[in-house]
Amino acid sequence: MKTAFRTFLIAVALVASAVGVSAQVPAPSKLINISVQVPITDEYTSATAGFVIRGDTVKKVLIRAVGPGLAPFGVTKFNPDPRLTLYNSAGAQIGMSDDWGQFVGDAEATSRVAASVGAFALTPGSNDAALVANLGPGAYTVKVEGARSGDKGIILIEAYDAP
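Predicted structure:
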């Protein structure tokens, strides 16, 4: 019985191959986004998140600090003007964003990347912070705080693996 079944499977495979049917191999799953919602208060005036890029090639990453952009989701106590600063593993500042929509070209490019990874849209000209960076392998830190001293409220920190 085992031999007959095995012969049947081989015959099915040969016929499938002859007519152009191939087995569908699902693509491996991968994480494309990680986020954390943090409150900025009198006691905790900033928040820090880190991530690591592994491999040997440069990776495009979208990083956002969303405050006003949370309003459509029912968040009422959002930070009115978050600012994000990106640091490399040596502690050197390599990027910064405050009021992401200030520069038309940057806003359009950032919006395209955000749409490509499925991120919710930010209002053009809003006080949210967002940047796209091409980063080599290594460890990175994102510091988020209110752009003005005393700005308090909830900020959503996001990092996306961009195509």
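Summary: The first helix runs from residue 2 to 18.
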